[in-house]
Write a structure and sequence with these properties.
single chain; 405 residues; alpha+beta; nine-stranded antiparallel beta sheet; three-stranded antiparallel beta sheet
Length: 405
C-alpha cells in the first residue's frame, strides 16, 4: 500500500457543502498521486458520509451514474484490502440507501446476505495464508488484515461470532499458531545473526494488542540474545620503593536477555570476580612482602541496545557493570619501620583509571562503550583498555561471546 497503515482503522467523515443525491453519491479512493483509483464502500448509515479506512491515501466523494460506477467496477485495484473495498462498495451503497429516509431511494434488503458471502470469502483467503505464514513481515501483514476484516464485519454487519459462531476463537487460535511460528523464525535467525532481533518489538506489540498469551514463547525467543562476558583486568602501580600488581578475573558472566515490563530488551547477569594473581616487588633487599588473595566478590553487568525500536540494524550501545571488590592483602615489611598494608586496592585504582566511564546507573556504575563488534560467535565483541600513567597502568580486556539459548 502507498500509505501508512492505521492499526485499528479510522473513520473519515465527509460533509459536502451542497448535498449529493444518494443515487449519484460515489465514494472513491486512490493511492499515490492518483493511480490505482477505485470505488470505496460507505458506512451503511444515514447522514454524513463516513468511510472506514485502514491506511493513509486519497479518499473523497464524486458524483456518478450507475453506468459510470459499473465501468469503474471492472478496474480492480492492486492491493487485497483495496480490492475488498472496491468489490463491496456497491453492496454498502445499497445499505446506505436502505438507511435513508423512507421513500427516497429503492431498497435492496438482500445486500447483507451478499456482503456476508463476500466477507466470508475474504476470511477464507486470509485464513489460508495464515496457516503457512512464518516470516514476521508476512505475519504482521496478515495480523492487520484479519483485524481489518473483523472491524469491517462488525461495523457493517454486526458481531462476528453472531454471524459465524465460533469464528472469534478460530481467529485467535490461528493467530497464536502464526505468531508462534514467527517467534521461532526470529529465534533461529537471531541465534546466528543477532541483528535479526529487530523484528521482535513489532511482533510482541501485535501479540499484546491481540491479547494472545505467548509469554513463555517470547522469553524463549529472546534467549537467542544470550552472551558470555569475560572480564580480566591487570593493574600495576608504582610507588617510591614498591611495585604492586593485581590480576582480577570474572569469567562466564552469563548475560541472558529478557523483556522488562516496559518492553525494553535487557541482558543481565552476574558471576564471581576474584584475583588470580597479586604481588609486590621492591628493590630494597632488606624488605619482604606478604601477598594474599582473599575472598571473591560479585561482578554484575547489563547490556544495553540501540535501534531496537526501528527497522534498522540493532547495535550494542554499551555494557554497564559493577566490578565489585575482589579481596587481596599486600604487606611490605621493612626493618625498623611499621609494615605498610595495601588492602583491597584493585577496585580503588581501577576506578581512578575509569573516571570518565563512571556514568552508568546506580546498580551498574561503570560503563564500557566503543566495542569492536565482529558479529561472530567468539568473540562477538571486544573492548580493551591499555592506558595509564607513570604511576598506574592497566591492561583490561572485556570479551563478549554469543551463546544463544
Amino acid at each position: 500500500m502507498s500509505g501508512n497503515l492505521l492499526p485499528g482503522g479510522a473513520t473519515l467523515s465527509i460533509h459536502t457543502a451542497a448535498p449529493i443525491p444518494l443515487a449519484q453519491e460515489t465514494p472513491v479512493a486512490w493511492n499515490g498521486s492518483g493511480q490505482d483509483f477505485f470505488l470505496f464502500p460507505p458506512e451503511p448509515a444515514a447522514g454524513d458520509l463516513r468511510l472506514l479506512i485502514f491506511h493513509l491515501g486519497g479518499y473523497g466523494v464524486a458524483r456518478g451514474t450507475d453506468a459510470e460506477r459499473e465501468t469503474q467496477q471492472g478496474k480492480q485495484p492492486i492491493e487485497d484490502g483495496d480490492l475488498l473495498s472496491h468489490e463491496t462498495s456497491p453492496l454498502l451503497r445499497e445499505g446506505r440507501a436502505e438507511a435513508a429516509p423512507s421513500g427516497l431511494v429503492r431498497k435492496a434488503p438482500d445486500w447483507r446476505t451478499r456482503l456476508k458471502d463476500r466477507y466470508n470469502g475474504e476470511y477464507l483467503r486470509i485464513l489460508d495464508r495464515m496457516r503457512s505464514a512464518i516470516d514476521p513481515t508476512t505475519v504482521l501483514d496478515l495480523d492487520l488484515e484479519i483485524d481489518s476484516w473483523a472491524r469491517r464485519v462488525t461495523r457493517n454487519l454486526g458481531v462476528v461470532d453472531q454471524l459465524w459462531p465460533g469464528r472469534g476463537a478460530e481467529i485467535k487460535e490461528r493467530l497464536t499458531d502464526m505468531f508462534g511460528r514467527a517467534l521461532d523464525w526470529i529465534h533461529e535467525r537471531c541465534s546466528t545473526a543477532t541483528t535479526q532481533i529487530f523484528y521482535l518489538p513489532y511482533v510482541t506489540w501485535a501479540i499484546h494488542r491481540d491479547n494472545i498469551d505467548l509469554a513463555t514463547k517470547i522469553d524463549q525467543t529472546v534467549g537467542c540474545l544470550t552472551f558470555n562476558l569475560r572480564f580480566e583486568s591487570e593493574l600495576e602501580a608504582h610507588a617510591a620503593i614498591v611495585t604492586l600488581h593485581w590480576v582480577a578475573l570474572a569469567e562466564n558472566v552469563k548475560l541472558r536477555s529478557h523483556l522488562d515490563p516496559s518492553g525494553k530488551l535487557r541482558a543481565e547477569g552476574a558471576a564471581s570476580i576474584a584475583h588470580t594473581e597479586v604481588g609486590m616487588s621492591t628493590p630494597v633487599q632488606q624488605c619482604t612482602s606478604t601477598n594474599e588473595i582473599g575472598a571473591p566478590d560479585v561482578f554484575k553487568a547489563s547490556m544495553e541496545w540501540t535501534n531496537l525500536d526501528r527497522r534498522t540494524r540493532p547495535a550494542l550501545k554499551r555494557v554497564v557493570y559493577d566490578h565489585g571488590t575482589p579481596h587481596s592483602r599486600l604487606v611490605l615489611n621493612c626493618p625498623f619501620v611499621p609494615p605498610t598494608e595495601y588492602k583491597d586496592k584493585w577496585s580503588e585504582f581501577y576506578d581512578s583509571l575509569h573516571i570518565a566511564d563512571l556514568n552508568g546507573p546506580a546498580e551498574y556504575p561503570c560503563s564500557a562503550r566503543e566495542w569492536i563488534v565482529t558479529g561472530e560467535r567468539d568473540p562477538w565483541a571486544t573492548r580493551a583498555y591499555t592506558n595509564g600513567t607513570p604511576a598506574l597502568n592497566q591492561d583490561t580486556q572485556l570479551k563478549l561471546t554469543h551463546t544463544p539459548e
